[in-house]
């Protein structure tokens, strides 16, 4: 729980506990309130609340629908991501299938055409060479014929390489990249699907609806608590142990819990106590000033009819004195 919300209560309970310790009570005791474990259900997305199915104070079972946020935008985003995942799957399938037979046939035809052009260019250059030596044609014409023949040979080599690439098929690195792209797209779609599912707020445990901070039509920011539940089989006493009796209170110590309006005490056991004090004066912690310290503790109720007790009821807890 947020300590800032309980600061006034902390100071009041701590000062009251100091007064009780100073009155000479036989049993060491501390003051506090009865509490239940609380869980907050945060908003998974900033969407408008379109339906509320429960009310504050209502007892609900695990799996009960509590409220629903607007689905339109998240559903559209999920549809887009799923389409991207299908596209990535199609690309991978194409890579794994390799080139089509028609592409290989086209590459072979391109190679044959390049070889024919190369043969024609070589023959022309061969015929032009003796004419050039006899100076019957210009030297520039011979040079152009030689360059054309060389270019045609390069075209043949390029067509041969293209055909060889198709015949050898897709590289394993390309297939690995395609699989990674598909996995990433599927993961993004899965995350969005979880977000869409969370827009229908479901009770994760059985308990009581303690508060619904937002109303129908509100649009809470991401992470804001849409519902707060009180859960658990039994409540516990949240008390502030004064420094003079801190040494006698340990985890596992037996205690008796007294509630305002009930004469009979409930048995309890200390389940947690802080090592750091909750209330510290601004002056030096020496001598009598040290008695102003208090330590937050939780005392679980181990018996009695406590399942229906409300949270926030003031309690007084007595601890067994050392040696008893």
Strand content: 15-25%
> How are helices and strands ordered from N to C?
HEEEEHHHHEEEEEEE
Low-confidence stretches: 1-25, 281-285
Estimate percent helicity: 40-55%
> What's the overall average pLDDT, rounded?
84
**Overall geometric form:** rod-shaped
Q: How big is the Rg?
A: 41 Å
Number of domains: 2
Largest sheet: 6 strands, antiparallel, barrel
If strands are numbered along the chain, what order do they take across the biggest sheet? Answer: 1-7-10-9-8-11
Assigned CATH superfamily of the largest domain: Efflux pump adaptor protein, beta barrel domain
Number of strands: 11
N-to-C CA distance: 33 Å
Keywords: Coiled coil
Subcellular location: Cell envelope
Protein name: HlyD family efflux transporter periplasmic adaptor subunit
InterPro entries: HH_YbhG-like, UPF0194_transport
Fold and architecture overview:
- With 324 residues, the chain is α+β, with helices and mostly antiparallel strands.
- The chain folds into 2 domains: 3-70 and 205-319, Elongation Factor Tu (Ef-tu), domain 3 (Beta Barrel); 76-190.
- The chain contains 5 helices and 11 strands, in the order H-E-E-E-E-H-H-H-H-E-E-E-E-E-E-E.
- A 6-stranded antiparallel beta barrel has the order 1-7-10-9-8-11. A 3-stranded antiparallel beta sheet has the order 2-4-5.
- A hairpin with a 6-residue loop joins strand 8 (254-259) and strand 9.
- Helix 2 packs antiparallel against helix 5 (172-198) and helix 3 (101-133) packs antiparallel against helix 4 (139-168).
- The radius of gyration is 41 Å and the shape is rod-shaped.
- The model is unreliable at 1-25 and 281-285 (pLDDT under 50).
């Amino acid at each position: 729980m947020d300590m800032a919300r309980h600061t006034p209560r902390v100071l009041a309970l701590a000062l009251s506990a100091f007064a009780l310790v100073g009155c000479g009570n036989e049993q060491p005791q501390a003051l506090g309130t009865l509490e239940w474990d609380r869980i907050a259900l945060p908003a998974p997305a900033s969407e408008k609340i379109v339906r509320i199915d429960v009310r504050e104070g209502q007892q609900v079972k695990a799996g009960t629908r509590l409220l629903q946020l607007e689905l339109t935008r998240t559903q559209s985003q999920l549809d887009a991501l799923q389409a991207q995942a299908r596209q990535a799957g199609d690309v991978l399938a194409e890579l794994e299938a390799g080139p089509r037979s028609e592409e290989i046939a086209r590459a072979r035809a391109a190679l044959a055409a390049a070889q024919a052009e190369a043969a024609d260019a070589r023959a022309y250059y061969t015929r032009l060479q003796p004419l050039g030596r006899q100076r019957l044609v210009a030297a520039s014409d011979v040079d152009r014929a030689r360059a054309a023949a060389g270019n045609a040979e390069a075209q043949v080599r390029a067509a041969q390489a293209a055909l060889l690439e198709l015949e050898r098929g897709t590289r394993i690195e390309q297939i690995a990249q395609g699989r990674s792209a598909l996995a990433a797209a599927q993961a993004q779609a899965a995350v969005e699907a979880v977000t869409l599912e969370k827009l229908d707020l479901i009770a994760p445990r059985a308990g009581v609806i303690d508060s619904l901070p937002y109303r129908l039509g509100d649009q809470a920011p991401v992470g804001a608590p849409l519902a707060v539940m009180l859960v658990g089989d039994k409540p516990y006493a949240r008390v502030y142990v004064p420094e003079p009796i801190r040494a006698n209170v340990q985890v596992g110590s037996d205690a008796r819990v007294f509630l305002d309006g009930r004469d009979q005490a409930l048995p309890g056991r200390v389940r947690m106590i802080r090592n750091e004090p909750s209330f510290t004066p601004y002056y030096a912690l020496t001598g009598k000033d040290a008695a102003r310290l208090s330590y937050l503790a939780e005392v679980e109720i181990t018996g009695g009819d406590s399942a229906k007790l409300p949270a926030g009821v003031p309690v007084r807890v007595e601890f067994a004195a050392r040696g008893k």
